[in-house]
Amino acid sequence: MSDSTSISKPVYKVVALQLAIATGFALLTATLGTVHKGWSAAYGGAIAVIGSLMYAMIVAGGSNDANKALRTHVRAEMVKIFITVVLFALALALFQSAAWLWLILGFAVATLAYWLSLLAV
User: Taking the CB of the first residue and of the last residue of the chain, which one, N or C, has fewer CB atoms within 10 A?
Assistant: First the structure.
């Protein structure tokens, strides 16, 4: 088993758990609230999951060189933040009827799920 394989599998498991929790939250919101709030929560969760997936794709190769690994993680985090800002801007422009509280809560739950998934994997 190569070094990059052992690094990349847990990274993608974290994103998969994050996606599952974000989807569950959106479904719960739609069930207990309204479908509109559920879609808003789903979009917020998707923003976090897409950013995490981009991060995972960039760092999945891994490196034994500490300087290279640090540069890769910094670059991945910058891309994640950029993608997050762009997706929130798109939400403002294209999804003006969104239930903004639920969109932000969906993002927050998915972001929390990311950190909790790191502990589980």
Answer: N
C-alpha 99/C-alpha 41 separation (Å) is 8
DSSP for residue 1: -
Assigned token pair, 66: 């500490």
Q: Which phi-psi region, left, alpha or beta, contains residue 114 (left: φ > 0; alpha: ψ -120 to 50)?
A: alpha
- Measured CA distances, 8 to 47, 59, 60, 80, 108 (Å): 21, 8, 4, 17, 24
pLDDT tens-digit series, residues 58-88: 988 777 888 998 999 999 999 999 999 999 9
At 75, which amino acid appears?
R
CB contact at 8 A, 43 and 108: no
3-state helix, strand, coil in the chain (%, to 5): 85, 0, 15
